[in-house]
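Module 6 notes. Inverse folding takes a fixed backbone as the condition and produces residue identities as the prediction. Think of it as a translation problem where the source language is geometry and the target language is the twenty amino acids. Below is one complete input and output pair. Work through it position by position during the lab.
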């Protein structure tokens, strides 16, 4: 909540993409892979407190992002909010929430990684990331503006794009969670979606629309639209953004067994039983032998 935005601002574009796309997920991956399976009693006991921290992170990250003047720092604070959704989904301890958390980790890597690429591309041209220094960029970079809009909407969670799938499953799981037993977590988290729409659309409107500055000159430089190299890095991300949004089962089925096993372990322990775990590989092999 404190070091991450500064780390993103100081890092080069490639460093920010790696940090957002891979490294930020190490903690949440550890929750799913180690904490819940190995320490189910402690996980159940800490679930309400972790969920409080999650919704605080969702709202805090969004509100702080709303007042940023640096585009890169705004995107960095959006990561705080998005990872709050992931933590909430994990500690809802429902299959829907767990599946949503897993797919949301992928979605965050795609959408936020692409946003850092986009900010880096416009910084390379204008040598500034201050929102106030731009305006009317859509008039001189129409392809850039279209891609920026798609990625921004995916980060907000527009239905039909990837962000909606993860956020919907997380909210559904936390709303129906027997472990949390408080629908207020889902209600407060849903406000984070509204806040995300505010800060991302505000940034997009300020940068892309309005009159063109100084005849298309920004800090004395003329902005050129995306070249083939930049398009080659962004188009595959857009393909996955739309693919996950329209047909998420392609990706959700890859994690359904893991989510089911982790949730069953927690629920069995919560009911006072002893969970005898079968590995995902064993479950898959038994299905093959049974002809399923």
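Target side of the pair, the amino acids:
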């Amino acid at each position: 909540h404190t070091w991450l935005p500064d780390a993103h601002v100081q890092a080069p574009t490639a460093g920010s993409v790696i940090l957002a796309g891979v490294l930020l997920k190490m903690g949440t991956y550890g929750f799913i892979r180690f904490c819940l399976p190995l320490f189910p009693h402690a996980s159940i006991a800490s679930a309400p407190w972790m969920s409080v921290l999650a919704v605080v992170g969702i709202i805090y990250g969004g509100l702080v992002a709303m007042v940023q003047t640096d585009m890169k720092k705004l995107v960095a604070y959006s990561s705080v909010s998005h990872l709050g959704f992931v933590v909430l989904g994990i500690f809802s301890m429902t299959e829907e929430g767990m599946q949503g958390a897993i797919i949301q980790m992928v979605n965050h890597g795609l959408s936020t990684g692409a946003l850092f690429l986009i900010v880096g591309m416009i910084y390379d041209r204008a040598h500034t990331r201050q929102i106030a220094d731009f305006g009317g960029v859509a008039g001189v970079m129409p392809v850039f503006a279209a891609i920026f809009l798609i990625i921004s909407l995916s980060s907000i969670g527009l239905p039909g794009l990837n962000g909606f799938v993860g956020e919907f499953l997380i909210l559904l799981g936390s709303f129906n969670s027997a472990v949390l037993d408080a629908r207020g977590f889902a209600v407060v988290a849903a406000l984070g979606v509204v806040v995300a729409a505010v800060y991302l659309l505000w940034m997009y409107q300020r940068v892309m629309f309005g009159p063109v500055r100084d005849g298309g000159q920004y800090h004395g430089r003329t902005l050129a639209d995306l070249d083939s190299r930049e398009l080659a890095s962004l188009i595959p991300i857009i393909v996955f953004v739309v693919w996950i949004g329209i047909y998420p089962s392609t990706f959700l089925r890859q994690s359904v067994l893991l989510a089911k096993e982790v949730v069953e372990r927690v629920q069995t322990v919560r009911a006072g039983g002893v969970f005898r775990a079968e590995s995902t590989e064993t479950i898959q092999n038994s299905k093959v032998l049974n002809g399923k």
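Reference fact for the lab report: Confidence is low (pLDDT under 50) at residues 279-283, 285-290.
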